[in-house]
């Protein structure tokens, strides 16, 4: 295993910790949807792996619970859709 392979693994792990930290920091935020990092092997036409990379960060858009915040301007969207203000 080369140094660059190890560094790519550390960078991917650091990104995963960033995503997890963001999820924890926003866990009490109304309407927050958690993220999940996914990873992929780096192959450059060789049989030996060249490390790992973050393939993407996906958001969980499943319906959450509707909570009354007591604030008159808060809104919730149920089922499919986004809102632009």
Automatic annotation (TrEMBL):
GO biological process: bacterial-type flagellum-dependent swarming motility
InterPro entries associated with the record: Flag_bb_rod_N (IPR001444), Flagellar_basal_body_rod_CS (IPR019776), Flagellar_FlgE/F/G (IPR020013)
Family: Belongs to the flagella basal body rod proteins family.
Subcellular location: Bacterial flagellum basal body
Domain Flagellar basal body rod protein N-terminal: 6-33
Function (record text): A flexible structure which links the flagellar filament to the drive apparatus in the basal body.
One Gene Ontology CC term in the entry: bacterial-type flagellum hook
Protein name per Swiss-Prot or TrEMBL: Flagellar hook protein FlgE
Broad class of the protein's primary localization: other
Record bears the keyword Transport: no
UniProt keyword Hydrolase, yes or no: no
Keywords from the UniProt entry: Bacterial flagellum, Cell projection, Cilium, Flagellum
Coiled-coil ranges per UniProt: none
């Amino acid at each position: 295993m080369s140094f660059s392979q190890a560094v790519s693994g550390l960078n991917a792990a650091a990104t995963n910790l960033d995503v997890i930290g963001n999820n924890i920091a926003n866990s009490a935020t109304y309407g927050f949807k958690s993220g999940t990092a996914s990873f992929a092997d780096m192959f450059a036409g060789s049989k030996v792996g060249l490390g790992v990379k973050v393939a993407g960060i996906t958001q969980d858009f499943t319906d959450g619970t509707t909570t009354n915040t007591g604030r008159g301007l808060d809104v919730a969207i149920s089922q499919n859709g986004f809102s632009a203000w």
